[in-house]
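To: structure desk
From: M.T.
Subject: fold request, one chain
Message: Could you run this one when you get a chance? Sequence is below, nothing fancy, just the single chain.
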Amino acid sequence: MKKIRILLICLFLCAGCEQTTNKIQPEIDNTVENSSTSFANMKLHRSDLHLTDHQKAIVNYFDTAYIPLFDCDDLKQHPTIYQGAQLTFQGTVASILKSNASEYEALLQVHSEKTRVYIRGKQEELPIQEGDWLTIYGRYEGVQDVFVDGAKHSLPMVSVNKCITEYGELKIQELTQAIFNRDVFIDEEKRGQDHALDAFHSPFERYYKIHLDVENEAFQQLELQVPHPNLRVLNHPQKQLYMSADFKHYIVVDYNSDTNATSMTYLDTDFQPVWHRMIGTGKLTCMDYTADYCAFVVDQNLYWIDMKTGRERIKPMNVGSKTELNIQEDGVVLIGTGKENQIMKVDWNGEVLWKRSVDLDVHDSKGLQETNHHFVVELIEDKDTTLSSKLVAFDHEGNILEELLNRKSQENAELNEKAPCLYYDAKDDVTYMMDGTVRQGNQCMIDE
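Reply: Done. Structure tokens follow.
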């Protein structure tokens, strides 16, 4: 319990606000090997992209395409869904098999005392220890033989991309160096002093003020959120920044809640506008892009624009309410809400190639990704006191390959959300943000 408490204090309480400076040497070559690869399809395990260390840090930070692990037995029983997929789960470090300055291997106790997952990854800034409670984001590599105390065990193995303890001061410096490729000043924010718990700030996240020495005053102060990715203009939380797929520009999406309008700006590395355009009414709900073009949905309309000019390549087309999309060579795969046609594909002429329905009243989705020449995604249904979600694997022609249903009560879901906290202050009811969703609940407190 002591170990968990120490880790949580490091994670969720803003310790000091000392300003740090990054002095760096810019990378000479930051061009992705395959310019047709969309940002959503850039993954750490893809050696064919020849990503630099800076690019890997950026991809790792912004990548949110992870599906949940419902049960460890599912890894062996549902390889179509899980094999090669990026997934996320929590557990306690049961034993350390290897630990040095560069890497570690460990057994993680997941879901029950008898269930173990073999994990390995690059060494953390604060090396993991037995008893640590971790949230893992990684890629399932299959079942592997592991020797523990001389005995051989066949265990599911996950290559760790990141875990919830990863973003210490050194990692923040490395990340900001990668994103901005220039000297920056960093201040860690103090909750209650620099920000309050609200729809844009969660008790489970850490926030950093980023001070940039650039001429464009609109982008001299930014706010970086970890571990869940969000980079935005300070005090303008709905003006968000994304790294471009060529790693040489920034995409700025600005939603004005007063006018219910969305605009987009394309900046060079000096934060000077290459182009700016109004999109229309409504919020941007999903987006993916290559170095040459960008696809996104605003007010149920699919836009496809040229990244060099900001001009539309096709007339915006109505595709319904959409939560995720993924660019492919022959079009875009879209995930939507409702009771039918939640999965669809549209080609670059605006023609619908196919639509598929899943037996679920979908209100959200997470983790859309391409793996082993097909796709997997989590579809989420919210009905009264029951949260239902279903993992769906489907191929490029829209054929449903497999479905895996998970049901949990709203009460258990709320308990899981509160798990990182040791207790809650029942007198302090607040609205806060978690995983990009506005939630109402009691303020998370840490027992010191």
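Reply (cont.): The chain has six helices and 29 strands. Let me know if you need anything else for the meeting.
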